[in-house]
From TrEMBL:
Residues 35-179 form the Oxidoreductase molybdopterin-binding domain. Residues 1-40 are annotated as: Disordered. Pfam families: Oxidored_molyb. It comes from the Bacteria. This is Molybdopterin-binding protein. InterPro entries: OxRdtase_Mopterin-bd_dom, OxRdtase_Mopterin-bd_sf. It comes from Agromyces rhizosphaerae.
Length: 197
Protein backbone atom coordinates (compact mmCIF):
# COMPACT_ATOMS: atom_id res chain seq x y z
CA UNK A 1 0.00 0.00 0.00
CA UNK A 2 1.41 3.36 -1.02
CA UNK A 3 1.12 6.44 1.19
CA UNK A 4 2.72 8.82 -1.30
CA UNK A 5 0.82 10.09 -4.27
CA UNK A 6 2.68 9.60 -7.53
CA UNK A 7 4.47 12.82 -8.49
CA UNK A 8 4.48 14.20 -4.94
CA UNK A 9 7.86 15.77 -4.19
CA UNK A 10 7.17 17.59 -0.94
CA UNK A 11 6.86 21.27 -0.25
CA UNK A 12 8.60 23.34 -2.90
CA UNK A 13 11.44 25.66 -2.02
CA UNK A 14 12.06 28.95 -3.67
CA UNK A 15 15.08 28.65 -5.92
CA UNK A 16 17.23 31.67 -6.71
CA UNK A 17 18.51 31.59 -10.30
CA UNK A 18 21.83 32.99 -9.05
CA UNK A 19 22.55 29.73 -7.18
CA UNK A 20 24.59 27.24 -9.21
CA UNK A 21 23.55 23.57 -9.13
CA UNK A 22 24.13 21.85 -5.79
CA UNK A 23 24.58 25.09 -3.85
CA UNK A 24 22.75 26.24 -0.70
CA UNK A 25 22.28 29.86 0.32
CA UNK A 26 24.44 30.83 3.32
CA UNK A 27 23.37 33.64 5.64
CA UNK A 28 26.72 33.80 7.47
CA UNK A 29 30.24 33.73 6.02
CA UNK A 30 31.76 30.30 6.77
CA UNK A 31 35.48 30.15 7.51
CA UNK A 32 37.39 27.26 5.92
CA UNK A 33 41.18 27.11 5.89
CA UNK A 34 43.78 24.42 5.26
CA UNK A 35 46.11 25.58 8.04
CA UNK A 36 46.80 28.31 10.57
CA UNK A 37 45.76 31.89 9.81
CA UNK A 38 48.80 34.03 8.91
CA UNK A 39 48.94 37.42 10.61
CA UNK A 40 50.34 39.85 8.03
CA UNK A 41 50.57 43.55 8.82
CA UNK A 42 50.00 45.97 5.95
CA UNK A 43 53.39 47.58 6.76
CA UNK A 44 55.05 44.26 5.85
CA UNK A 45 52.66 43.08 3.13
CA UNK A 46 54.01 42.91 -0.42
CA UNK A 47 52.57 41.66 -3.68
CA UNK A 48 54.57 40.49 -6.69
CA UNK A 49 53.82 39.38 -10.22
CA UNK A 50 56.64 37.30 -11.71
CA UNK A 51 56.54 36.67 -15.44
CA UNK A 52 57.50 33.40 -17.10
CA UNK A 53 60.85 35.03 -17.99
CA UNK A 54 61.56 35.92 -14.34
CA UNK A 55 60.79 39.66 -14.44
CA UNK A 56 59.24 40.76 -11.13
CA UNK A 57 56.79 43.60 -10.55
CA UNK A 58 56.28 44.62 -6.89
CA UNK A 59 53.73 46.61 -4.89
CA UNK A 60 53.73 47.47 -1.22
CA UNK A 61 50.41 48.25 0.50
CA UNK A 62 50.35 51.93 -0.49
CA UNK A 63 51.34 51.19 -4.09
CA UNK A 64 48.51 48.66 -4.27
CA UNK A 65 45.99 51.26 -3.08
CA UNK A 66 47.44 53.82 -5.49
CA UNK A 67 46.74 51.41 -8.38
CA UNK A 68 43.03 52.16 -7.90
CA UNK A 69 40.53 50.62 -5.50
CA UNK A 70 37.00 49.95 -6.75
CA UNK A 71 33.75 48.60 -5.31
CA UNK A 72 32.70 45.08 -6.32
CA UNK A 73 29.33 43.47 -5.70
CA UNK A 74 29.24 39.80 -6.58
CA UNK A 75 28.01 36.33 -5.66
CA UNK A 76 30.51 33.82 -4.25
CA UNK A 77 30.30 30.02 -4.28
CA UNK A 78 32.24 27.53 -2.16
CA UNK A 79 32.98 23.98 -3.28
CA UNK A 80 31.49 22.81 0.06
CA UNK A 81 28.04 23.73 -1.33
CA UNK A 82 27.41 27.17 0.21
CA UNK A 83 26.87 30.40 -1.72
CA UNK A 84 26.52 34.02 -0.64
CA UNK A 85 24.67 36.33 -2.99
CA UNK A 86 25.26 40.05 -3.44
CA UNK A 87 28.45 40.28 -1.36
CA UNK A 88 30.19 43.66 -1.19
CA UNK A 89 33.94 44.02 -1.59
CA UNK A 90 36.53 46.69 -2.31
CA UNK A 91 39.67 45.83 -4.16
CA UNK A 92 42.19 46.57 -6.87
CA UNK A 93 41.44 44.99 -10.26
CA UNK A 94 44.19 42.72 -11.49
CA UNK A 95 43.92 44.57 -14.81
CA UNK A 96 45.47 47.63 -13.13
CA UNK A 97 48.43 45.58 -11.88
CA UNK A 98 48.97 43.90 -15.25
CA UNK A 99 49.22 47.21 -17.18
CA UNK A 100 53.04 47.12 -17.10
CA UNK A 101 53.39 43.32 -17.27
CA UNK A 102 54.47 41.78 -20.58
CA UNK A 103 53.64 38.10 -20.87
CA UNK A 104 52.72 35.34 -23.27
CA UNK A 105 51.81 32.98 -20.42
CA UNK A 106 48.52 31.16 -20.42
CA UNK A 107 48.32 30.39 -16.69
CA UNK A 108 49.04 31.87 -13.30
CA UNK A 109 49.81 30.34 -9.91
CA UNK A 110 48.59 32.40 -6.96
CA UNK A 111 50.84 32.20 -3.89
CA UNK A 112 49.77 33.06 -0.35
CA UNK A 113 51.43 33.86 2.93
CA UNK A 114 51.39 30.50 4.69
CA UNK A 115 52.30 28.53 1.56
CA UNK A 116 48.90 27.99 -0.11
CA UNK A 117 48.78 27.96 -3.91
CA UNK A 118 46.08 27.73 -6.57
CA UNK A 119 46.29 27.72 -10.37
CA UNK A 120 44.15 29.74 -12.77
CA UNK A 121 43.95 30.42 -16.50
CA UNK A 122 45.33 33.94 -17.04
CA UNK A 123 42.38 34.83 -19.28
CA UNK A 124 40.04 34.30 -16.31
CA UNK A 125 41.71 36.81 -14.02
CA UNK A 126 41.87 39.69 -16.52
CA UNK A 127 39.23 41.83 -18.24
CA UNK A 128 37.38 42.76 -15.05
CA UNK A 129 37.14 39.22 -13.65
CA UNK A 130 39.48 39.34 -10.60
CA UNK A 131 40.65 41.67 -7.83
CA UNK A 132 43.01 41.90 -4.90
CA UNK A 133 40.28 42.38 -2.28
CA UNK A 134 41.05 44.45 0.82
CA UNK A 135 37.58 45.15 2.30
CA UNK A 136 34.48 43.05 2.82
CA UNK A 137 31.07 44.51 3.67
CA UNK A 138 32.52 47.97 4.35
CA UNK A 139 35.27 46.81 6.72
CA UNK A 140 38.94 45.83 6.27
CA UNK A 141 39.16 42.15 5.41
CA UNK A 142 39.51 40.04 8.58
CA UNK A 143 42.51 37.67 8.72
CA UNK A 144 40.24 34.59 8.91
CA UNK A 145 38.72 35.66 5.58
CA UNK A 146 42.12 36.28 3.99
CA UNK A 147 43.05 39.76 5.19
CA UNK A 148 44.78 41.98 4.72
CA UNK A 149 44.33 40.99 1.06
CA UNK A 150 42.94 38.02 -0.83
CA UNK A 151 42.43 37.17 -4.45
CA UNK A 152 38.79 37.49 -5.52
CA UNK A 153 37.79 35.45 -8.59
CA UNK A 154 34.01 35.14 -8.20
CA UNK A 155 33.32 33.22 -11.41
CA UNK A 156 35.12 30.17 -9.94
CA UNK A 157 34.68 28.22 -6.71
CA UNK A 158 36.01 30.17 -3.76
CA UNK A 159 39.14 28.06 -3.17
CA UNK A 160 40.47 29.78 -6.30
CA UNK A 161 40.16 33.14 -4.48
CA UNK A 162 43.37 32.58 -2.51
CA UNK A 163 43.42 34.03 1.00
CA UNK A 164 46.46 36.05 2.22
CA UNK A 165 47.64 36.49 -1.35
CA UNK A 166 51.25 37.63 -1.80
CA UNK A 167 51.91 37.07 -5.47
CA UNK A 168 51.22 35.59 -8.88
CA UNK A 169 53.67 33.54 -10.91
CA UNK A 170 52.94 33.40 -14.64
CA UNK A 171 53.33 30.00 -16.31
CA UNK A 172 53.33 28.81 -19.89
CA UNK A 173 51.88 25.42 -18.87
CA UNK A 174 49.20 24.71 -16.29
CA UNK A 175 50.26 23.12 -13.00
CA UNK A 176 48.04 22.10 -10.07
CA UNK A 177 47.97 24.15 -6.89
CA UNK A 178 47.45 22.94 -3.31
CA UNK A 179 43.86 21.65 -3.44
CA UNK A 180 44.15 20.64 -7.08
CA UNK A 181 46.92 18.19 -6.08
CA UNK A 182 44.46 16.62 -3.61
CA UNK A 183 41.75 15.98 -6.17
CA UNK A 184 39.91 19.29 -6.50
CA UNK A 185 39.03 20.15 -10.09
CA UNK A 186 41.75 21.95 -12.02
CA UNK A 187 39.33 24.66 -13.19
CA UNK A 188 36.48 25.01 -10.65
CA UNK A 189 33.46 26.43 -12.50
CA UNK A 190 30.46 26.30 -10.09
CA UNK A 191 27.92 26.35 -12.92
CA UNK A 192 29.44 23.14 -14.29
CA UNK A 193 29.90 21.69 -10.78
CA UNK A 194 33.62 21.27 -11.40
CA UNK A 195 34.32 20.25 -7.82
CA UNK A 196 36.65 17.25 -8.11
CA UNK A 197 38.48 15.29 -10.83
Amino acid sequence: MSFITRGFTGRGRERDDRLPPGQTLARDFPVLSAGPTPEVDTDEWEFTIRTESGVEHRWDWQALLDAGVEDVETDIHCVTHWSKLGTSWRGVPLDALFEEVETDAGYVMAHSYGGYTTNLPLEEVLDGQAWIAIDYDGEPLDPEHGGPARLLVPKLYFWKSAKWVRGLVLMEDDQPGFWEQYGYHNHGDPWREERYW
